[in-house]
Specification:
Blueprint (H helix, E strand, L loop, with lengths): L5 H10 L4 E5 L3 H13 L4 E6 H6 L5 H12 L5 E8 L2 H4 L9 E4 L6 H17 L3 E6 L22 H11 L3 E4 L16 H10 L4 E3 L7 H9 L2 E6 L1 H17 L6 H24 L1
Parallel strand pairs: 1-2, 1-8, 2-3, 3-4, 4-5, 5-6, 6-7, 7-8
Helix pairs in contact: 2-4, 2-11, 7-8, 9-11, 10-11
Length: 283
């Protein structure tokens, strides 16, 4: 089927008090695994390409975007394409021509006024191109090589009053909120601030997004969805599944040299992880 629009999937999820799963992809195996996992549970899904993933692919967006688009168009479930954690304006401007219906513009590292100004400019440009745009307020650490942010550190949490003003003044369509999760966690030990989430949900009129979800236990994820999270971003969990399966296969088959043998095992492990996590979000 044709590519779905991220905004449509997220708004529908928000209205139904559920969440759409958004998985970060790096390789073609990631793409195929995410779609296979979503198809196995008959659920819509978002494929996300981060700026870091583009850097890994020699700074070229189109090869992975074209592969993701081709796979998505052959899927039996709605699949959207989202450009994630964009800091480069040059990369932002490549999104419409590469099949993306949405972007997450990441200026959260900047002081509030600079974040607002940069995000406002990005939102104005994105909307003129028909793109749905997400931003971040508060800082979900661990994304750009820094250690995971202390969830109780000053500036780590999203302030509801500040967030209300930020959404109104920036014009963004969704907001990633910092409520205790962190990117790149390899243990599922994060504890979310559900009281803060409740206040944010009551204060803001746009869908809320949870980043760093790989480090959040199942019960915390389910509670976050019940509390108003409408889009859940997952990346590291797929890499853990893939790497673990490949390590296990190569340990059992040290003679293996055909990459298809171990990549297929890794792809299957990621597909199972996708299906399981979607099940958690559905409740």
């Amino acid at each position: 089927m044709p590519l779905a629009a991220t905004g449509d999937l997220v708004v529908a999820a928000a209205q139904a008090r559920t969440a759409v799963a958004a998985f970060n992809i790096i390789t073609l195996e990631h793409v195929e695994a995410v779609i296979a996992g979503a198809e196995s549970v008959d659920a819509p899904v978002v494929l996300q390409v981060s700026e870091n993933a583009v850097k890994f692919r020699y700074g070229r967006l189109l090869p992975l975007a074209r592969a993701a688009t081709a796979a998505a168009e052959r899927a039996s479930v709605p699949v959207a394409l989202h450009l994630d954690h964009v800091q480069s304006d040059d990369l932002l401007r490549q999104a419409p021509g590469a099949g993306f219906s949405s972007v997450m513009y990441d200026a959260a590292r900047l002081p509030y006024e600079q974040n607002l100004a940069a995000t406002r400019a990005a939102a104005d440009w994105a909307h003129a191109q028909g793109l749905w745009i997400e931003a971040e307020l508060g800082e979900v650490g661990g994304k750009h090589g820094e250690p995971p942010l202390d969830a109780h550190a000053p500036g780590a949490r999203t302030d509801p009053a500040e967030a209300r003003a930020f959404v109104a003044d920036s014009g963004v369509d969704a907001l990633a909120v910092a409520i205790g999760s962190s990117h790149a966690m390899t243990t599922r030990t994060a504890t979310l601030d559900h009281g803060l989430l409740k206040r944010l949900t009551a204060t803001l009129g746009v869908p809320l997004v949870l980043h760093g979800s790989s480090g959040v236990p199942d019960d915390e994820l389910a509670a976050a969805v019940m509390g108003g999270i409408a889009k859940v971003n997952v990346g590291t969990a797929l890499n853990i599944a893939m790497t673990g399966a490949i390590r296990e296969f190569l340990a059992a088959h040290p003679e293996a040299v055909d990459s298809r043998k171990y990549l297929s095992v890794g792809r299957e492990a990621m597909a199972r992880a996708v299906a399981r996590l979607i099940g958690v979000l559905r409740g």
